[in-house]
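Why predict the complex rather than its parts? Because the way molecules touch one another can change local conformation, and only a joint prediction can capture that. The input here totals 495 residues.
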Amino acid sequence: MNCEEARTQLSLYLLSELDFSREELLEQHLDGCPACREELAREKALNALLQTEDARLEVPAGLLSRCRADFAAQLAPGAPEAGNAFVRWWNRLGDIVIPPAALFKAAGVAALVAAGFFAGRSQQRFSEPPGWTAARVKSVEAAGDGQIRVVLDETRQREVSGAPEEEQIQRLLLAAVKDPTDPGLRVESVQMLRGRSESSEVRQALIHALENDENDGVRLKAIEGLNRFARELDTRRALTRVLLRDANPGIRTQAVDLLMQNMAPAGLEQETVGAMQEVLLREENGYIRLRCQKALAEMKASPGTF
Amino acid sequence: MDESDLIRAAQKGDRDAFERLIRGYDQSVLRLAYNLLRNEEDAADIYQEAFLRVHKNLNSFRFDCSFHTWLYRIVTNLCLDQLRKKKVRREEPSVVETSDGTRDRLDMVHEERAASDPQRNVLSGQLRDRIQNVLGSLTVRERMVFEMRHYHGMRLRAIGEMLGTTEEAAKNCLFRATQKMRVALGDFV
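Output of the joint prediction:
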């Protein structure tokens, strides 16, 4: 391989896109050619530059949420659902939103009941035109004079905006973090709360999400939010539990890294030491085991349990 | 529930499974579309269209490739179409008229970002501009291959497959794109 040929291969080499024989030839050439090695170093620098934050346009804030809401709205009328044609027809009707005035002026009781009932199903998570109300029939009874009385629960969509430090916004975000129906909403809410983790209420919510949320994305955001508090006892205990129990090795890795970065002397870290010793017995991930071994050695703790 | 379970459930009409399935990908799909098209509305349109197609055609997905490959094939085809349309219609002028006179569209994006982070220094701004200018000057295919290889970690073979071409052609595209990048960023490395 000559220099000209070698230089056309450098970028592919760095991306591990060369086949074995080409890679071998290039490496042989590089061994004996300082000029091409220099070129390789420049290529590496270029790659590093391309990986910096400046190389990318960040998706504007709010665009993802808008896309999700728009998509949910588009999907709502014809969304597939388990079950038969009746269920699909039902759900299509369920996405119709009934303005309250029209609802109460409806002449036929059957129509009224049907409209209210179906509209009730639209409350779940699809966006609705502002000012419109979704309703759900709570109960029905014969009124005695040949009429039927229908009681409706209504849900009105409302928009609230404010600074992240405002109590009302924080309260709403804390509620959204616990919304079991929408992991995307929980991820975004945790992300927005991350900057407010000096508040003990927010911190507790992040700890709860880290330990209990079934969605990996939510737990990852929560652990990032707890970064600054990895010296606090409640956070360390949570990280220790996560290190032992979380199913996702990426999250366990973050937990071990955070625990290690903020290590106190072994005497004050009995729970962490115990957890790390246990990790050594059962962890499959080599990196996590190594980190624990290192941490135990640094604390002069035994790697085994007795 | 792993991904194939989610797909099967979504194929049977389970809306929650469908939602969980696409939530695993929608952020990177949007990032890809936004970086390729560099326009918020276009990226949002690609997002909608791509996932509507996934929704409509999920029943025909037969697991003969990964869901990721299948989805990205849809997204990249839509982006390619959009980029080609733009090239023909010249929909995206590089300058826009504002109350302050004629401004470069990209500069305006950068200013918004810089304003939100005053720590950014001049050098980093120059680098960003340079990279974005080169990306803007690449051909549609070069841009696509470069984006997917460098920022979405896809192998060239998969990229070739997605774009309906060979691995070799994808390699050549990437090589040309990297050359242009190297020339433009020569004084930074």
